[in-house]
Structure formats: structure tokens, C-alpha cells
Amino acid sequence: MTSFKAACVQMTTGIHPETNLERASNLIARAAAHGANFVATPEMTGCMNIRGNDSQAQRFYESDDPLLKAFQVQASDLQIWLLIGSLAVKHESDERLANRSFLISPEGEISARYDKIHMFDVEVGDGQRYRESSVYRPGDKAVIADTPLGQLGLSICYDLRFPYLYRHLAQSGANIVTCPAAFTRVTGEAHWHVLLRARAIETGSFVIAPAQSGLHEDGRETFGHSLIIAPWGKILAESNVTGEDVIMAEIDLERSTDARRRIPSLSKTQSFS
Q1: Which of 12, 103, 120, 140 would bridge with 158, disulfide CB 3.0–4.6 Å?
Q2: Is 5 annotated in the active site?
């Protein structure tokens, strides 16, 4: 398959997983009804509760997570590739959680999983202090999924600020990169569009970036503006709605091949002493 229709689901995830599941499922179904072969949801699709007293409350191991099981069934029912941007699941070898992205096949099987590598430990000036590493164990592996749609390189939110990850994904064969996110309003207004377009241009890859948007129940405010970007840096689709939305665009992988032929920067290596 050299072309397909991709969709980004934009959400304002709350503190109740059952409600978030219903909202996400409705948006996924809407995208599929409009012809999407690939649908992606944002980071923390299942729950956003930064003020929760117990970060482990309502958290499950991957094998027991009821939301993940429901999304697997939905992907199979709709016969789509479904990227759940991330769920917070109990880590198999750590007391902390994993911020984990799941790629689900049209058969309802988990085709790839990726644990967010770069932890958001910052103070951005929005009144919040973020220490993601205190709750989540960072991943240590870059992940590419080989699918009939193309080679998908997986990333999550703060990973976007580390271009070497995307160069590695592209040099390893990825021609599509996903970046589900929950960018803060402050950082999103300053950097979201610039960074995503840069990653597309640098790697000659499509970038699919579903986002959280609006004021959340836990007090956070996220930037939104879900984006689908072509390898030459052109924005193919963007949400300009605050809150829930679905955006769609046609992905033609020949555009990645053409961009890399015109600017063959991925073939260049350089060491510095």
C-alpha cells in the first residue's frame, strides 16, 4: 500500500477512564466512518489526573488493562490500524508506571508497543511543576513497526525535542513518525508547530501528531492543534478547535521517497572530535 487515509483524534481527557474510553471510541468510530485506515489518539488517552493522590489508582498491567482490551476489539470491529497514543500501565519490572504507546492491527493484535524515552521533568512557567520521572520509568528502546501502511516510527510528546531519536528512526527505515502528545499551552504556543515541521523536514517523513486540547479536569491546560505533516514540511491537516476533534489527510509514501531524494541528508554521517 503506497497511500492511505490517516486520522488524528483530539481529546480533552479527564480523570475518569470509563468516560475517556467512551469519548475516544466515538471519535475513533467517526474517523473510520469517514474512511480512515489509520487512526491515532493522543498521549494519555485513558486518564489525565496530575492531582491524583494515588498515581497507581485504576492502573493495570498491560495484560489486564480494560481500556486496551476495548480498543483492541474496536480496531478489529472497524478493521483499522489504531495507535493508542499512550496509556499509563504498570511497569513489569519497576514500581513506577510506563507511559506506553500501542499500535493495534485490524485483527485486534498489538503489533508494537513503545515506552516514552524522554521524561518531562521541567518547569515551564504555567504554574505547574512536572516531574514525570517520579511516576514513570523511561523506556530505553526506539521502536519501528513494519506494517502494510508503511514503516512507523513511534514517539511520545517530549521526545519531540530530541531530534537524534527521529533521525535514528528514519535511518532505520521509518517513513512515518507518530507523536501523540499532551503539550502544555505555554510550550505548545511557542514550539509545537516549529518542532513538528522540523522533524518532518529533517527526516523526510510524514508526521502524525494527535494532541490533547483544552482545560482538563485535573487543572492542566493543553495546546491542541493536532497535526498531520508531509515530508516537505507542509501541514496537510490541523485542528483549530479547542477540545475534541478529528482531522484527516491522505498519506502518499511517494512523497517521502521524493523528499529524501531531493534532500539526501539522511545518507550523511559525520563524527566530531
Answers
A1: 120
A2: no
- The reply to whether 43 belongs to the active site is yes
Q: Are 250 and 5 in contact (CB under 8 A)?
A: yes
For the chain, give every domain's residue range. Answer: 3-263
Q: What is the pTM of this model?
A: 0.95
CA distance 220 to 202: 31
State the residue for C-alpha cell 506494517: 147
Length of the chain counted residue by residue: 273
Which grid coordinates are listed for 86? 499512550
Q: Which CATH architecture has domain 3-263?
A: 4-Layer Sandwich (3.60)
Q: Which of 43, 221, 238, 244 is catalytic?
A: 43
Tell me the one-letter amino acid at 251: I
Of 157, 221, 238, 244, which is the active-site residue? 157
Q: What pLDDT is recorded for position 54?
A: 47
Q: Per-residue pLDDT tens for 208-266? A: 999 999 999 999 999 999 999 999 999 999 999 999 999 999 999 999 999 999 999 99
Sign of CA dihedral 80, 73, 110, 239: positive
Spatial separation of the C-alpha atoms in residues 86 and 68, rounded to whole Å: 10
Under 8 Å between Cβ of 195 and 157: no
For residue 11, give the DSSP letter: B
107 belongs to the catalytic site: no
The Cα 50–Cα 48 span in angstroms is: 6
